[in-house]
Structure to design on (662 residues):
């Protein structure tokens, strides 16, 4: 049954939880991803299911190592997310979350561009619901902006797919490349969902506006589907190396000065995506393995960090760094779990980030990208700085906030979900072979040699030293209640203002035109009234008698003519 | 026990000092190790003594200093977008500002 549709259990689960409640709901929520993962276990790599539609061959299901890896990853993320959200009583979020996970699974098993497009748009809609589920005016506005960008990406994908199909005669989703017909359109569509620089506004705008549990799902699926799609369609595209390098570097500046801690994590999500994009751009087996492995790890450690900040938000109702602090006193378990996530994203040896990020960095050196390598190192130091230190420090340490008195550990299901993620972070970090065995290419790589470990430890220790020095010397910028202008300013502020300014300029012109039009109408009316009004020449009533008289006269004249 | 009476780990400044001192020693140790351990270098720049340590430190200091400068240009009040949205709506309702 699963060969028909690997995403089936998740979609059926979504349908069921729309009517179930209580324990039955919990069972279905947890069983859906487990059943789905079991279904993947039954799938043979190399299986494809084809279908003919209007003379086009569609491939709704294509199973290979790459899609299987992402398939497992999404089921794992869905399970952890569902467990984290188990205490909720919100049907909207339950349905949206499972359908969202199902769409992600469907997308990575899609073997043709049209099927991919369908799931691409489903991802957009289901994820937007998770933003709307916050049910605040801000979230609604943010969700609408998010939805427009996401659907826009889908439209680009569809347009690209049509151009591609008409040029090549096939819709199959294999390597595309920028030179292919429609290649740029598809590249841009993938680029929006991968949060390329300047196309990233939706991510940092909407993710922090979602619910505490919704953001955990959001951080797992959309961007990773995009990474999968890039890896499949554009591996080895050199442009991606530079785009990726930019993605690793620019968000960390924003992350340092951002106050909303979940927005800090959203920026750091772009930074991590950058590493994957660089890996895909390099395109060697090591680099691609590194990119995919990093996507896998990122879902777990970014999920863990999002969960820990979600727990803080859930308990205190606050997520701004300027307002938080000292929570380690009341939330020690959450603190430790958050620090495991922080160590993982910072790529500490023995934590998961290290075993995957080092592959991308090694590949960059091996292929001679010296400056990209320096950028990656800079980003590695930076990510430790903002995600590794700043997040735990301002939430759980720093000064005691007003929440210390009332804070407590989050619900048990949240703690269990975070613990599972933390165990996975350490497990993969200590036994990378488990993950390496699932990667699409066979390779002979070990992250744990003295050179790598020492280099990484030096980098991290001195980053920490820099933070400590800057903090103690009072140079470190304090957390301030603020927003920082980013690319979204263009469409949240500049464009509305420009439209408004243009309208203001056009308004007098418009008014003059209308006044002129009105005066024309008035002249016309006067003319009509003159001729057709009560005493107008054309509106006069003529007595029947006068007509008979005129007819008689005409007859008389015609008789006179006839006579001669 | 009343909460105010309880002293937590970092309420004691000695423990904070301990952490900072531990970090310092770790840094010294890690640079020192470079003299002892045989490394397989894959890039010429790695051969410079303390390359990663220096790079990490300088990178982070630069990052923070530049980010501070960015604040001057990019930071706005928390309700920047909301307030403006309200303004636009208010301004958009009629011709009063023409």
């Amino acid at each position: 049954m699963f060969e028909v549709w690997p995403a089936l259990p998740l979609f059926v689960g979504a349908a069921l939880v729309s009517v179930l409640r209580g324990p039955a709901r919990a069972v279905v929520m947890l069983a859906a991803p487990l059943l789905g993962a079991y279904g993947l276990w039954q799938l043979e790599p190399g299986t494809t299911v084809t279908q003919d539609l209007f003379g086009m061959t569609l491939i709704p299901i294509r199973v290979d190592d790459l899609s299987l890896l992402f398939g497992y990853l999404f089921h794992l993320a869905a399970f952890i997310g569902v467990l984290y959200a188990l205490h909720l009583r919100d049907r909207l979020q339950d349905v949206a979350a499972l359908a969202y996970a199902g769409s992600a699974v469907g997308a990575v098993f899609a073997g043709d561009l049209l099927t991919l497009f369908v799931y691409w748009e489903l991802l957009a809609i289901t994820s937007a619901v998770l933003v709307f589920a916050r049910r605040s005016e801000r979230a609604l506005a943010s969700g609408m902006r998010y939805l427009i960008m996401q659907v826009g990406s889908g439209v680009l994908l569809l347009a690209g797919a049509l151009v591609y199909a008409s040029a090549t005669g096939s819709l199959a989703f294999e390597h595309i490349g920028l030179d292919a017909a429609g290649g740029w359109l598809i590249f841009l569509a993938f680029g929006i969902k991968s949060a390329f620089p300047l196309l990233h506004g939706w991510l940092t705008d909407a993710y922090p506006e979602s619910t505490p549990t919704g953001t955990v799902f959001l951080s797992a699926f959309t961007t990773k589907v995009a990474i999968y799609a890039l890896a499949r369609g554009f591996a080895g595209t050199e442009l991606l190396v530079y785009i990726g390098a930019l993605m690793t570097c620019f968000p960390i500046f924003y992350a340092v000065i951002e106050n909303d801690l979940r927005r800090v994590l959203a920026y750091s999500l772009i930074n991590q995506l950058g590493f994957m994009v660089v890996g895909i751009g390099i395109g060697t087996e090591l680099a691609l393995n590194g990119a995919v492995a990093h996507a896998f790890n990122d879902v777990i450690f970014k999920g863990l960090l999002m969960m820990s900040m979600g727990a803080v938000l859930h308990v205190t109702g606050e997520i701004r760094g300027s307002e938080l602090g000292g929570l380690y006193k009341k939330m020690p378990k959450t603190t430790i779990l958050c620090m495991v996530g922080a160590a993982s994203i910072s790529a500490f040896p023995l934590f998961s980030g290290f075993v995957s990020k080092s592959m991308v960095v090694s590949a960059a050196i091996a292929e001679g990208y010296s400056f990209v390598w320096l950028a990656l190192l800079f980003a590695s130091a930076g990510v430790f700085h903002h995600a590794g230190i700043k997040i735990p420090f301002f939430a759980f340490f720093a000064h005691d906030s007003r929440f210390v008195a009332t804070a407590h550990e989050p619900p048990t299901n949240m703690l269990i979900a975070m613990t599972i993620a933390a165990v996975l972070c350490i497990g993969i970090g200590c036994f990378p072979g488990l993950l390496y065995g699932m990667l699409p290419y066979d390779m002979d790589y070990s992250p744990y040699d003295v050179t790598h470990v020492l280099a990484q430890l030096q980098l991290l220790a001195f980053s920490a030293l820099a933070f400590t020095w800057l903090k103690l010397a009072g140079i470190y910028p304090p957390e301030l209640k603020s927003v920082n202008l980013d690319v979204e300013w263009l469409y949240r502020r500049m464009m509305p203002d420009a439209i408004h300014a243009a309208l203001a300029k056009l308004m007098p012109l418009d008014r003059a035109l209308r006044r002129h039009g009105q005066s024309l109408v008035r002249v016309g009316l006067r003319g009509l009234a003159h001729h057709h009004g009560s005493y107008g020449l054309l509106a006069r009533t003529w007595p029947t008698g006068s007509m008979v008289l005129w007819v008689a006269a005409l007859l008389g004249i015609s008789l006179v003519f006839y006579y001669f | 026990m009343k909460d105010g009476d309880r002293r937590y780990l970092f309420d004691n400044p000695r423990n904070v000092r301990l952490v900072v001192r531990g970090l310092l020693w770790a840094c010294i140790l890690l640079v020192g190790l470079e003299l002892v351990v045989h490394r397989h270098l894959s890039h010429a720049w790695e051969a410079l003594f303390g390359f990663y340590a220096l790079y990490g430190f300088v990178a982070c200091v630069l990052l923070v200093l530049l980010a501070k400068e960015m604040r001057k240009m990019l930071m706005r009040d928390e309700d920047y977008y909301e307030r403006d949205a309200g303004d636009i709506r208010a301004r958009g309702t009629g011709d009063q500002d023409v």
Notes: Chain A has 21 helices and three strands. Residues 235-482 of chain A form one domain. Strands of chain A lie at 48-53, 56-62, 483-484.
